[in-house]
Amino acid sequence: MRSFLYFTAATLAACVLLICFLDQPLALFIHRHTGWAVPFFLAYTEGADHLHGWLLSQRLGPLPWPYVLVVVAYLVGRWGLRRPGASLFLLVLLVHIASQVSSNVLKGVVHRLRPEVLFGPGYEGLGLWASGPHNDSFPSSHTAGYLSLFWPLAVAWPRYRLPLLVLPGLIMLGRPILGAHYLSDVWFSTWLVVAWTVVLGGLLAWADRRAANKNPLANQG
User: Fold this and answer.
1) How far is 179 from 185, CA to CA, in rounded Å?
2) How far is CA 168 from the centre of its chain?
3) How far apart are CA 53 and CA 176, in angstroms?
4) The Phosphatidic acid phosphatase type 2/haloperoxidase domain covers which part of the protein (predicted)?
5) Which of 25-29, 84-88, 155-159, 171-175 has the lowest mean pLDDT?
6) pLDDT tens digits, residue range 151-199?
7) Range 160-189 burial, b when 16+ CB lie within 10 A, else e
């Protein structure tokens, strides 16, 4: 918890500094010097989006079947096989949904202009609470969506943290390179995912402890 509080304080300070002073010059620098990387990150992101969209389009009743499978895996593992570690299935799903919903809500509140407006006609000020198109930059929903699928796993399995974070890491790196987001957009979405993992992970751990206290046999395989 202490490390999360440190990260929260660093995120607040960094995002204020970036939004007020550094985001725009950094975006212009990246735009001018990383054009060679755009085709790779564009293809990578489009491929990930296509796969993610296809998976969610496969329905089992009103719900995407991957969601249903995750819930079934949790129920069978946690309450059928009595494995506390099966709560990780539910944690990933809850963090994913919470991160996406909260990032989209914030987009509709902050209304920050995207870097592509800066590269084109430009704008005065910080681009916050702006009207018109392309005003959904903060925070990055791509970062929230993809990182939320892997960060809870990376926390649970620190030995495999690096390979688990390759896919979302490339998505996150590509957002500024593609001119879709400022650095603070990506950073804040990262904090959102970490925060939801801490909060929801703590709630699930509390629920598991409470269930174990009520039924001492619940955690025995």
Assistant:
1) 12
2) 8
3) 22
4) 90-199
5) 84-88
6) 999 999 999 999 999 999 999 999 999 999 999 999 999 999 999 999 9
7) eeeebbeebeebbebbbbbbbbbbbbbbbb
Instruction: Tell me the sheet residues that pair with 63.
Output: 60
Q: Which residue in this structure is represented by tokens 């509390």? A: 206
Find all residues with CB under 8 Å of 41, minimum gap 6, and list them. Answer: 170, 173, 174, 177, 178
Q: Which residues pair with 60 in a beta bridge?
A: 63
221 within 8 A of 83, measured Cβ to Cβ: yes
**Close Cβ partners of 219 (under 8 Å, ≥ 6 residues apart):** 82, 84, 208, 212
The predicted-structure confidence for 44-61, as pLDDT tens digits, reads as follows 999 999 999 999 999 988
**Helices 183-214 and 166-177 meet at what angle, rounded to 10?**
150
Most confident region among 16-20, 116-120, 215-219 by mean pLDDT: 16-20
Residues 142, 46 contacting (CB under 8 angstroms): no
